[in-house]
Design brief:
mainly beta; 35% strand; 1 helix; globular
């Protein structure tokens, strides 16, 4: 069987298609947690691959805009600089918050849903993580770590929509997305600047590029993939 990885579709807060520099090496390790979303043990195949790469950005990057949090001084004081929007985050010529996933090639294989919940936190009047992945049916813990009101409003096209409020610090709510969907935008009607994205998959093969533009997907069985 081949372990060639011909192409990947990268989708983030900036919608794009890009071909990354890919390193593919055998690894027996299961999928690792990424962007606050634990992944299932993808495979026990000793020939499974680790796929890694870096998302580079060329051209003139749009400048992030400063967010005015005057209405929430408790959140504003948590920042020494900014805060700034995260629509496009470019640092040192690399792009952060790009969602990388296996779109095709798994041949109908099924994978266990992680027992550990993914986490969407609200810190400093921001969604943390800004972009993350989760498997369909996996629990999502939504937490309010701020001492003020938040509401969480995903706007899916396939999954069931919900809109919940968390008025107190430390509140947690558990939700799930039942069907694969890429990507689901997150909004907060209390704070217009709060936004994020979640990718829902039927497999654990996804990652989000970090501050240096790098990503890693572990435990991928041999095969050809999009």
């Amino acid at each position: 069987m081949k372990k060639d990885l011909k192409n990947f579709l990268f989708v983030g807060t900036l919608i794009l298609i890009a071909l990354a520099a890919i390193a593919c090496a055998p690894s027996g390790a299961p999928g690792a947690p990424t962007s606050g979303a634990p992944q299932a043990a993808a495979t026990t195949d000793p020939n499974a691959a680790t796929v890694s790469g870096k998302i580079n950005f060329t051209g003139t990057a749009p400048q992030p805009k400063k967010i005015a949090m005057d209405s929430e001084p408790g959140c504003a004081k948590q920042y020494t600089e900014g805060p700034f929007t995260e629509n496009v985050v470019v640092k040192g010529g690399t792009l952060q918050n790009v969602f990388v996933y296996v779109k095709e090639g798994l041949g109908g294989k099924t994978f266990p849903v992680p027992q550990q919940a993914a986490l969407l936190d609200q810190v400093g009047c921001r969604y943390v993580a800004h972009v993350f992945g989760i498997q369909a049916g996996q629990n999502l813990t939504i937490r309010n770590s701020d001492d003020n009101l938040h509401n969480i409003h995903p706007k899916p096209k396939v999954n069931k929509e919900f809109n919940i409020g968390q008025p107190r610090k430390g509140m947690e709510t558990t939700k799930t997305f039942d069907k694969p969907e890429i990507m689901i935008p997150l909004a907060c009607e209390v704070h217009s600047w709060m936004n994020g994205y979640v990718g829902v998959l039927d497999n654990p093969f996804y990652a989000v590029s970090g501050a240096d533009g790098t990503f890693t997907i572990k435990g991928l069985p041999p095969g050809d993939y999009v």
